[in-house]
């Protein structure tokens, strides 16, 4: 940061996509630095930026940080994820016989086409080694 009075709270988080995120305070104001890749920026804004703005607008922190549009679906294929980081994977949704199914899209943070195709994203916990096909997942809708 080029603001000499800025206080960096953290730089780099265990989230993919979005690791190079930075959060600071300057002149009593919060500053959130988003990653440069489009997918990373969207994920971090959705998970941190929008809740921060809602909290600054008066919502209590718990409500502000809760996802707003969620559905449940069965995962169509396995999704691998290394432990030690929280992963957000873009998915498409389709409904078959009254059941929603989620299909993962390529997990490249620079692949902007995945944002156009995706209906939402699933979160893989940092202590979880992926999710197996057939498991029910929570889909954070776009």
Describe what you observe in this structure.
This protein has 142 residues and is of the alpha+beta class. It folds into 2 domains: 7-65, no CATH class; 70-141, MoeA, C-terminal, domain IV (Beta-clip). The chain has helices spanning 38-56, 61-65, 113-117, and strands at 7-11, 15-16, 22-26, 29-33, 70-75, 86-96, 99-104, 120-124, 136-141. The strands form 2 sheets. The protein has a 5-stranded mixed barrel. A hairpin with a 2-residue loop joins strand 3 and strand 4 (29-33). The radius of gyration is 16 Å and the shape is globular. It starts with 6 loop residues before the first strand and ends with a strand. The mean pLDDT is 93.
Brief characterization of the structure:
This protein has 142 residues and is α+β, with helices and mostly antiparallel strands. It has helices at 38-56, 61-65, 113-117, and strands at residues 7-11, 15-16, 22-26, 29-33, 70-75, 86-96, 99-104, 120-124, 136-141.
How many H/I helical runs?
A: 3
The backbone outline, from C-alpha atoms, is globular
Number of domains: 2
Which class of the largest domain in CATH terms?
Mainly Beta
User: Major sheet: order of its strands?
Assistant: 5-7-6-8-9
Q: Write down the secondary-structure element order.
A: EEEEHHEEEHEE
